Amino acid sequence: MRARAFALVAALLLALQPAAARAQQLVADLSEHLIAITTGFSGTDVLLFGATEGEGDVVVIVRGPESNAVVRRKSRVFGIWINTNQVTLTGVPAFYRVASSRPLGEVAPPQIRTRHQLGIENLRFGTQRQRTPAEIAEFRTGLLRNKERAGLFSADVGRVTFLGPRLFRARFQLPANVPTGTYTVETLLVQNGQVVAAQTTPMLVSKIGIGAEVFDFAHRHAAIYGILAVLVAVAAGWGASAVFRKS
Amino acid sequence: MIDIHLPIADVSLDLLTLLAIGGGVGFLSGLFGVGGGFLITPLLVFLNVSPAIAAATGANTVIASSVSGVLAQLRRRQVDFKMGGLLLAGGFAGSGASVALVSVLRQIGQIDFVISLSYVLLLGTVGAMMFAESLRALLRVSAAGGVPARTKLHQHTWLHGLPFKTRFPRSRLYISALLPILVGFAVGVLSGIMGVGGGFLVVPAMIYVLGMPTALVVGTSLFQIIFVAANVTILQAWTNQTVDALLAFLLMIGGGIAAPIGADLGRRLKAAEMRILMAALVLVVAIILAYGLIAPPVDVYSVSEPS
Questions:
Q1: CB contact under 8 A, B300 and A41
Q2: B114 pLDDT exceeds 70?
Q3: Which residues of B touch A35 (CB under 8 A)?
Q4: Is residue B302 part of a domain?
Q5: Could you say which of A177, A212, A236 has the minimum Cβ distance to residue B256?
Q6: B150-186, pLDDT tens digit by residue?
Q7: Residue A187 or residue B298, greater confidence
Q8: Residue B68 and residue A71: Cβ atoms within 8 Å?
Q9: CATH superfamily of A2-208
Q10: Among B266, B22, B89, residue whose Cα is nearest residue A237
């Protein structure tokens, strides 16, 4: 229902735009730009909706904030599993999802999929030190597997659904462990295997409420936080003991 | 399922699961006088909390169950403050020394598995010896028709004869004051390296090295663990911001309720029964750690984000 309303608003906006602006081939927006992680947060859905001018496929990419990731490999030494090698990959998004109106293989040729990093197999990472391509490929696979297991990356391509010839929408599920930070949601319009229009929308995932205040306090007044944590623990132990003695 | 998002750990966990973990650890803590950090950390890691946050938050939780357990023991006057204080003094010096030692070990590199391995061997040996000793004691009791055989309170070794001999009226001991300090120091070094409170190293040491009565060991161990855990909590919160106060509080509720129940059960057990259960626990931990070393990992690749 809400999706319909959004789509309607989008269509109206598009229709009311002056002729010059109508040359814009792609308009898209999110149902929410701020994802609030409260104490009761257990994941949420984000809806992207928009309209295209003319024919084509729509691909949506959600990327979390980038950072470095240290990938370690264990091997067996004298019967014991220990970390024997590590590679630091750079530019690793904290979160990655992709959705498309048709299978990615039919939408765009390999070089376009590589250039725009469509699908986890096309994600590009750098390394902190010079590494052989074989080494990078190996640790990259390890990283993708770990991220997928944590639910932060997905090899599945979500669906972009067209409501009529021009309006489209896509739904993304953000899991409970969605990392905080500034996300980018990139919408691409692809015609005959070429990206003809693109739009990037920011999305902020942020802690709100008591959780956010605890986090802020823990970082701003770290020593006081530590002492308070100890005092609370002593009081809790004392309280539990007193309650138990009475009953 | 009541999911609660934890502000520092950054994961959502079920409230009842957290209460149950806190309760289980609190129960063991009240019964045996161990902190329970060695149990909380792996359980939280299993629930996707990062190891650093799990360990620091575990230390915070241990304070509550230890306070609750000490108060229960104190009502029965089963705490030797003098002994606990000396152990603690040695413990702080030992954990300070371990910081320097750890940085040396890091420079040598690839030392993690050496630590784990020595830990497994240490716990395995301590657990097996304790198990054998308490089993013999139990068999002696039943052979004597339920009447405990009269033995010496404890074995005197050359260690007890070191200088600065002091009376410990509560433990009914007359031993060198250096001994508890040395025991505390050794445990402090080990626990500093391993990152655990060391309750289940200090408890066997109190029984077999110091020769303290089993009944007094639980309360005295918990008494000194309060300070060790408080020290870790403040240092971790201050330098690494890895203490999740909400997570710790939820675990404490379970622990605070269960620790007196454990202490109550402990009071009804015979000293040898208590020791054999403790030995079994130490052995179980050693086996779990050993399994962790030799079992094939879920994934040979692991990922961590540098802070």
A1: no
A2: no
A3: none
A4: no
A5: A236
A6: 455 456 666 766 777 888 888 888 888 888 999 889 8
A7: A187
A8: no
A9: Macroglobulin (MG2) domain (2.60.40.1930)
A10: B22
Give the per-residue pLDDT at A21.
41
Residue A41 CA, distance from chain mean position:
16
In the numeric block, the tokens 């927006």 are attached to A29
Q: Do B12 and A177 touch (CB under 8 A)?
A: yes
> Which stretch, A9-23, A135-149, B114-128, B186-200, has highest mean pLDDT?
A135-149
Long-range (24+ apart) CB contacts under 8 A made by A161-166 are A161/A101, A162/A58, A162/A101, A163/A4, A163/A7, A165/A55, A166/A11, A166/A51, A166/A52, A166/A53
Q: What is the ipTM of this complex?
A: 0.80
Residue B187 lies in a domain: yes
Q: Is B270 helix (H, G, I), strand (E, B) or coil?
A: coil
B170 to B81, B83, B215: CA distances (angstroms): 9, 9, 11
List, as ranges, residues 177-216 from A with C-beta within 8 Å of B.
Answer: 177, 179-180, 207, 210-212, 214-215
Question: Which amino acid type is present at position B56?
Answer: A
User: What is the distance in angstroms between the Cα of B48 and the nearest Cα belonging to chain A?
Assistant: 9
Q: Which of B7, B48, B72 sits opposite A241 (nearest CB)?
A: B72
Chain A, window 79-108: residues with a beta carbon less than 8 angstroms from a chain B beta carbon: 79-83, 88
Task: Please report whether residue B304 resides in a domain.
Answer: no
CA-based angle A195:A50:A159, to the nearest 5?
A: 75
Q: Which domain holds residue B180?
A: 3-294
Number of domains within chain B: 1
